[in-house]
Amino acid sequence: MFGTLREKLAATRRSFERVGLLFRSGKPREEILDELAEALILADIGVPTAESILQRLRETTRKDASAGDLEAALEAELERLLAARQAAPADDSRPAVVMIVGVNGGGKTTSAAKLAAFHKRRGRRVMMAAADTFRAAAQEQLIQWGRRLDIPVVRGQYGADPASVVFDALQSFKAQKADLLVIDTAGRIHTNTNLMNELEKIRRVLGREIEGAPQETLLVLDATTGQNALSQAREFLKFSGLTGIFLTKLDGTAKGGAAVGIAKEFALPIRFIGVGESEEDILEFSPREFVKALLT
After folding, report:
1. Whole-prediction pTM
2. pLDDT in tens, 49-106
């Protein structure tokens, strides 16, 4: 995994080159720390997160710390921030439902398909539900993915109540005794309908039909938007069911450092990352592997 991740994060790793150069500059501790904040901000970690990292390094390293000590402390701090909210892997031994939420254009529908394929490769019987009924293209896209992956997709009429589509999908899911239902939801809804209310309605339907459902609700964020992903997604924090983040489009962007700020800001674990266009370009997130891929 490390080799694949390092290759996929090549653009982001280049944005951290200035960080690496600082540790090899021969400068004393204070000069390195003074310049490190700017280097981290340029790597798209974000101003508040960069400042908190610098404060932590000043507290945890000696005044005569070597560049190697500072580099090790930075690596440990980045890993600590990313791992602080990491959750235990979901229990795959029983039927479960995963909701995919996020703004349109962030790779939400593709992420739903990748996640379905990820679990199918692990031997689970998977279904998908096209509950983004306000965007016909999203339904068609998910259906095409379903054909490509040989995964059943339940859809409704354009403009139909998303919760009713989810209800129908649940009936089929239970009848077929499948293991996992992945639900693609709308990123925006008709102006007379509140998106968060629709998501809560879907969640109520799920909980009524299957105890404990949805077991996972993943917020899809586009890594190419960097710090803008934070402002795009804050609205979704009003939705009470979020359990984790699916960070997409990490390949080819220099803004992957935003993952650190995102994890800190949202107090949610990054569960999966998307690193390409194919169904296999999905990785379970590992804070240690991610930091190693950025800094080594």
Report:
1. 0.91
2. 999 999 999 999 999 999 999 999 999 999 999 997 776 666 666 889 999 998 888 8
Q: Which CB contacts under 8 angstroms, 24+ apart, belong to 46-51?
A: 46/227, 46/230, 46/258, 46/260, 46/261, 46/265, 48/261, 48/264, 48/265, 49/81, 49/260, 49/261, 49/264, 49/265
Check if the beta carbon of residue 198 is closer than 8 Å to that of residue 183.
Answer: no
Residue 286, CA distances (Å) to 2, 30, 89, 213, 220 in order:
10, 31, 12, 25, 17
Cα gap 49→9, rounded to integer Å? 20
* Pair 208, 235: CB distance under 8 Å: no
Q: What is the DSSP letter of 131?
A: -
Q: Which helix or strand (DSSP H or E) is residue 248 part of?
A: strand 244-248
Spans of the chain, pLDDT less than 70: 1-2, 87-93, 188-193, 232, 240
Task: Give kind and range of the element (H or E) at residue 116.
Answer: helix 108-121
Q: Residue 89's pLDDT is what?
A: 60
Q: For residue 191, what pLDDT is reported?
A: 41
Residue 254, classed as helix, strand or coil, is coil
Contact (CB, 8 A) for 189 and 195: yes
CA distance 230 to 211: 32
